[in-house]
Hints:
Structural class: mainly alpha
Radius of gyration: 21 Å
Largest sheet: none
Protein name: DUF7847 domain-containing protein
Pfam families: DUF7847 (PF25231)
Keywords: Membrane, Transmembrane, Transmembrane helix
Organism: Natronococcus jeotgali DSM 18795
Distance between the termini: 53 Å
Helix content: over 70%
InterPro entries: DUF7847
Amino acid sequence: MLPLPVISVLETATAFAFIILIRAYVGMIVAGELTDDPVTIREGLHRSLARTPALVGLIVFVVFFAMTVPFLVLLPLLVLVGAIPGNPMEMVGFPVAAAVGGIVFAVPFLLLLFKFWFALEACVIGQYGPIESLRVSWHITTNYRGKFVLIAVISTGSALSLYFPTSFPEIGASLTSLNPVLKVISSSVGELLSIVWASAYAHIYIQGIVS
């Protein structure tokens, strides 16, 4: 019964609270255990909530850089295409042109996402500001270039763990209708796995800082 814009705002706020704040909270607790400075549940919740303004600023910067830099990389290609006489799309074909443009945009975009992946942990666990968190994350991922595949696998698993639980009830409707317990498990697996992934991020962040 709510207007569509209100629903969109609520969905965005819920996604932020679940994905960002849960990761921040779990990271705070795990970091305390790894550094032999345990944080109570209440204290971890208070610290993660206190960092919300900094997290919002961090997300704004990440989105800005992740969209602006790839566009600036793509811009010379667009200028070159515009300077070529005739219709370059007809010369090479639209699929080829779209693929080249997509690759030119996607490569720096994905690279920046990787370089900024631990900015959230730096912001919450390290108590850094948004810009400083980006710098710390950049430094950690530079030291972990040899573990790029490991971080990519963890990141992919984190994303899939949020997607599959929502699609599983539809894919396996017959199974879940026969077993209500299976339906509950499929609905909860994303939340459970998100805690595992957040713990892994915190662990890698602490290792990067210590080393």
